């Protein structure tokens, strides 16, 4: 296979997006490495990859690293052509102290970038978030693009702040100390799609399991963009390979936005077998529609995401299958 000589490191292989990214790289013949906080979690990654159809693990290596210390990062990146920096804390609830998220997000990204620069890696693809794009402008029908930034001078939830601080620090590092290392950034909206091996993340736990287990009774007033985890993994590979992607950020979203109410209605219509016990969600106030553009990713990277309905139904099916 043509990619056999190319080595890619994915940070955070235990995560929902991390494991899908490892899967796609292996499927395409790359030499793959992944980092995890404890090697004892290796088996969960293998189980998920087996569920994704992988049976030969000779091209996959594991490294124990933590975003909060320097150990092993140099070993993990040595000899890599590309690095996908996916790992970052994403809890379902914000901690009391925002630094629990900001420090690993920012310092972890800088550790990975420094190690990549020193090892002569060609390009890092950083998983940022729509959190770093769209949390400061509150205009109805505003269309968010990659030119927008969440304003750090406003009150922000810890996770939103951690992603914005980490992405800003990464661009600054590349500009001042990058020594030719290339950076591309992906800014996904809410990531859904299948949870292979039962590996979910806060987005699925809140919006999919929360609705399916009937715990959620009210729908928040905001709408969210939706994107399938398989398409987010794919856009990382496209950003790795595209000459035009260096120095650019790309919003990753399927078409349109949805409220939790829309998600619950979709599940009730398309998956009545899971939803007979769910009450109608009561909207709290008027829903506030923000649009998010995926035009840049589609035109520059030729990226074609699945629909938001397909992503959400795949999540619902996999959550139910892993119960
Ligand atoms: P996830 O399943 O919670 O994955 C987070 C990953 O980060 C896990 O592998 C976790 O490792 C790792 N991590 C957290 N703290 C760490 C630390 N101190 N040291 C080393 N690793 C650490 O969530 P996900 O959805 O896949 O998130 C992956 C990336 O996508 C994150 O950068 C997130 O901000 C971004 N993102 C997610 C969404 C979404 O809706 N899911 C949307 C936009 C952007 P453990 O397994 O050891 O905890």
Explain the overall architecture.
- It is a single chain.
- The chain is an alpha/beta fold and 323 residues long.
- It has a single domain (7-192, 226-254, 289-305), classed as NAD(P)-binding Rossmann-like Domain (Rossmann fold).
- It has 11 helices and 14 strands.
- The chain has a 7-stranded parallel sheet with strand order 3-2-1-4-5-7-11, with helices on both faces. It has a 3-stranded mixed sheet with strand order 8-10-12. It has a two-stranded parallel ribbon with strand order 6-14.
- α1 packs across α7.
- The radius of gyration is 19 Å and the shape is globular.
- NADP nicotinamide-adenine-dinucleotide phosphate is lined by residues 12, 14-18, 37, 66-68, 86-90, 104, 127, 129, 163, 188, 190-191, 201, 203.
Q: Helix coverage percent of residues?
A: 25-40%
Strand content: 15-25%
Give the topology string: H per helix, E per strand: EHEHEHEHEEHEEHEEHEEHHEEHH
Q: Give the terminus-to-terminus CA distance.
A: 37 Å
Largest beta sheet: strand ordering: 3-2-1-4-5-7-11
Bound molecule kinds, no repeats: NADP nicotinamide-adenine-dinucleotide phosphate
Fill in the CATH topology: Rossmann fold
What is the C-alpha radius of gyration, as a whole number of Å? 19 Å
Major sheet characteristics: 7 strands, parallel
Which segments are poorly predicted (pLDDT under 50) over 5 or more consecutive residues? none
Family: Belongs to the NAD(P)-dependent epimerase/dehydratase family. Dihydroflavonol-4-reductase subfamily.
Domain NAD-dependent epimerase/dehydratase: 8-246
Keywords: Oxidoreductase
GO molecular function, one term: oxidoreductase activity, acting on the CH-OH group of donors, NAD or NADP as acceptor
